[in-house]
Amino acid sequence: MAVSESEVFPDVPPLHWSDELASGDARMDETHREFVEQLAALRALPVQQQLEPYRALIAHTEEHFAREERWMVAVGFAADNCHAHHHREILDMMRAVERHYLDGDHDIIARMAAALAEWFPMHAQTMDAGLAQHMRAVGFDSRTETLADPSRVRPATMTGCGSVHCS
Ligand SMILES: [Fe+2]
Ligand SMILES: [Fe+2]
Predict the structure, then answer these.
(1) Counts for the chain of helices (H) and strands (E), in that order
(2) Nearest ligand to the C-alpha of residue 77?
(3) In terms of Cα–Cα distance, which of 92, 165, 91, 152 is closest to 125?
(4) In this structure, what CATH number is given to the domain that contains residue 79?
(5) So what's the pLDDT on residue 5?
(6) Among all ligands shown, which has an atom nearest to the Cα of 64?
(7) Which value, to the nearest 10 degrees, does the dihedral of the CA atoms of residues 67, 87, 121, 54 take?
(8) Minimal CA–CA distance to 140: which of 62, 27, 19?
């Protein structure tokens, strides 16, 4: 019988969407909800069936992070700010996990998925919520990716993570 991830890692409960995860930006939250749903579906599968949905999660995360990084630049962050740097670290880890799975470590996607279920709420509630708050403050529309008044933003002037600390 196949062993499911939840049996291997019972200590990290499934992550479900809730208002606690909401950033205050509806466009951002659409993507976050998709992430949470894809992650939950992945974790419910036996490890032998996790590779393709994991690859789909990586592709979704690449778009998710790239979108947020476009927004950061549009609202005045330097491209190499700490939120973007953190995204790169997460994606590098996710890609490394795919390679290890292919090398024969068939539990590693399940372990990474459990780690992501622990990581995501913290990221959404700090770095992403900070970005959403800053987008609102400068009048940035995340659907059209436009500023109501471009004169309110000085390009590439911020290197932090918005209203929150990075560490
Ligand atoms: Fe995000
Ligand atoms: Fe983010």
Answers:
(1) 6, 2
(2) 2
(3) 165
(4) 1.20.120.50
(5) 47
(6) 1
(7) 90
(8) 27
Query: Of 5, 2, 3, whose CA–CA distance to 110 is shortest?
Result: 5
Ligand nearest to the CA of 30: 1
pLDDT in tens, 58-88: 999 999 999 999 999 999 999 899 999 999 9
> How many CB atoms within 10 Å of residue 166?
15
Ligand 2 mean position, distance from CA 83 (Å): 6
Q: Is 8 domain-assigned?
A: no
Report how far ligand 2's centroid is from the alpha carbon of 144 (Å).
19
- What's the pLDDT at 161? 66
Distance 104 CA to ligand 2 centre (A): 30
Rounded distance from Cα 124 to ligand 2 centre (Å) = 7
Query: Is residue 127 included in any domain, yes or no?
Result: yes
16: in domain? no
Ligand lying nearest the CA atom of residue 72: 2
Number of domains in the chain: 1
Q: How far is the CA of 104 from the centre of ligand 1 (A)?
A: 30
> What range does the domain containing 48 cover?
27-152
pLDDT band at 162 (very low <50, low <70, confident <90, very high): low
- Give the ligand with the smallest distance to the CA of 83: 2
Does any domain span residue 116?
yes
pTM exceeds cut of 0.85: yes
